[in-house]
Amino acid sequence: MITDVLADAATRMDRAVEAAKDDFSTVRTGRANPQLFQKVLVDYYGSPTPLAQLASLNTPEARTIVVTPYDKSALKAIEQAIRDMPNLGANPTNDGNLIRVTMPELTAERRKEFVKLVRSKGEDAKVHVRGIRRKAKDDLDALKSDIGEDEIARGEKELDALTRTHVDLIDEALKRKEVELLEV
After folding, report:
1. Could you tell me which residues are beta bridge partners of residue 100?
2. Would you state the pLDDT for residue 13?
3. Which helix (DSSP H) or strand (DSSP E) does residue 181 occupy?
4. pLDDT, mean over the chain
5. Which of 81, 93, 148, 154 is placed for a possible disulfide with 42 were both Cys, Cβ 3.0 to 4.6 Å?
6. Phi, psi dihedrals of residue 61, rounded to the nearest 5°
7. Residue 82 in contact with residue 67, Cβ under 8 Å?
8. CA–CA separation, 22 vs 38, rounded Å?
């Protein structure tokens, strides 16, 4: 029973770490990257639709992304969604067939803002992992009547080690992203 609780917590923590890494990838560094547009939602016939489902994304140059919509009638909506995307600072241009998005150079000040943003996202991910730990601990406490307190204490130590490992994974990904952001 304890192993089930720990396995569930480990799975959920793994997903939280992957979500944090995905979130970090949406913050731009020096190069244009289609991952930056991963969270762009386009108002397509009244429903928010991910950009990747409406268009193909290519990077012909280091600071340019070309967005080619599958449905030409969605050009204006895609252009507006890219323009409204926070923390991107991109200026899309529409030529009637495709959209060119030129990413501005990152200044030292803008890089520091992005580092703060990434740290905030990292802290949110750690809070989520700790929330998973809290729920798993509550589940273990509920088993106290069926299993001895020594077993529960061992389970809690394993849970703490698991939490520490996942928080360290988030910290490592955060450090890599910070180095990537501050690299000129």
Report:
1. 66, 93
2. 95
3. helix 149-182
4. 88
5. 81
6. -135, 170
7. yes
8. 9
CA gap 50, 3 in Å, rounded: 38
69 φ/ψ sector (left φ>0, alpha ψ -120 to 50, else beta)? beta
Instruction: Please check whether residue 143 is in contact with residue 152, taking contact to mean a CB–CB distance below 8 angstroms.
Output: yes
For residue 184, what pLDDT is reported? Answer: 64
The predicted-structure confidence for 6-16, as pLDDT tens digits, reads as follows 999 999 999 99
CA distances from 1 to 6, 7, 133, 147 (A): 9, 10, 16, 9
Beta strands, E only, 16-141: 41-44, 47-50, 55-61, 64-69, 91-94, 99-102
Does residue 31 contact residue 64 with C-beta atoms inside 8 Å?
no
**In whole angstroms, what is the distance from residue 30 CA to residue 180 CA?**
8
pLDDT value, residue 25: 80
